[in-house]
Amino acid sequence: MLKKFSGLARAIFGTKKFLYPTKEQVLAGKRYVVREISDEDVKELIALEREVYHGETPWTKSAFLSEIHSPIVHLYICLVHHEQIAGFIGGRVIGEDCHITNIAVKPESQGCGIGSFLIDEVEKFAIMNGCTKMSLEVRVSNRDAQRLYRRMGFESHRIRHNYYTENKEDALEMIKVLKEA
Questions:
Q1: pLDDT digits (tens, 9 = 90+) for 95-152
Q2: 57 neighbors 167 (Cβ within 8 angstroms)
Q3: What is the mean pLDDT of residues 170-180?
């Protein structure tokens, strides 16, 4: 019975073992290492979130670890500059949708192309995995992020009321239809 369930779960969700190749990327004149996120990065990711979200930490250590080790096809990568994470993104494939679960860029590194680069990397991953769209949620108050997502081809879809548990803020769901490679 367990074998049947495992096989069904693999058929529905797929399996992860896409290895993202570590590489270098130059953005705004700075050289970054782009690599998959590891367990050892989680403390730094939480600190980065705390900085970006003004003291709040939307994701816990267990949430990050659960995503990183999920059997669902996923990609979690970061950009590292001088051994410090400047930004990261996560996405998971569910059917034909690649859902961006989390993205954050250090405030001093925002506006340098990091967010766009990270979204482009997830888009390539999504297309490679047969996705026809990408989706995400963003706080209705986060106009800067919404502008970035619109520039990247995302369109507003619907409001998700009381989406953020800590303050009951609404989220704007955004979707991008993907073109085949």
A1: 999 999 999 999 999 999 999 999 999 999 999 999 999 999 999 999 999 999 999 9
A2: no
A3: 92
| Residue 57, both tokens | 């930490």
Where does residue 86 rank: exposed (0-12), middle (13-18), buried (19+ CB within 10 A)? buried
Helices within 53-167 (DSSP H only): 61-68, 114-128, 143-151
Query: Which band of pLDDT confidence, cut at 50, 70 and 90, is reported for residue 7?
Result: very low
Give the C-alpha distances (Å, rounded to integers) separating 83 from 35, 41, 58, 68. 12, 11, 24, 20
More confident residue, 17 or 51: 51
* Mean pLDDT on 6-21: 56
Residues labelled as active-site residues: 137, 149
Question: Is the pLDDT at 8 greater than 50, yes or no?
Answer: no
Report d(CA 72, CA 16) in Å as an integer.
Answer: 6
**Sheet order of strands, 155-160 included:** 23-27, 30-36, 74-81, 84-94, 97-105, 133-139, 171-177, 155-160
Distance, C-alpha 127 to centroid of its chain: 15
Q: Is 19 exposed, middle or buried (0-12, 13-18, 19+ CB in 10 A)?
A: exposed
- DSSP code for 57: -
- The sign of the torsion formed by the CA atoms of 65, 20, 6, 96 equals positive
C-alpha angle 78-80-85 in degrees, rounded to nearest 5: 70
